[in-house]
Specification:
10% of the residues lie in helices and 36% in strands. It is mainly beta and 91 residues long. This is Sarcosine oxidase subunit delta. Pfam families: SoxD.
């Protein structure tokens, strides 16, 4: 089980959170065309290593958080609020 350190509530078990997806994906502009929206919706990376993800603390403060998590080991290295940035470490 993951322990996610919420900046507002402290460390909590992952059952209090909902995974919301990759936080590095950028929505295309409204005039980008059908192909750009198709790629945005269906063509996603499946990285091995560190990834910044969206999580929502449903069982607590209900805040959206950015979590830096390793996709193989599930180690959580950093958590930030939705407006802050998290950098993915080099290999």
């Amino acid at each position: 089980m993951l322990r996610i350190p919420c900046p507002h509530c402290g460390a909590r078990d992952e059952v209090e959170f909902t995974y919301r997806g990759d936080a590095t994906v950028t929505r295309p502009a409204p005039d980008a065309g059908v192909d750009a929206f198709h790629d945005y919706l269906y063509l996603r990376r499946n990285p091995r290593g560190w990834q910044v993800e969206w999580w929502q603390h449903n069982g607590g403060c209900r805040a959206f958080l950015k979590v830096l998590r390793h996709t193989v080991t599930h180690e959580v290295r950093g958590v930030a609020t939705a407006t802050e940035t998290l950098e993915v470490p080099e290999a």
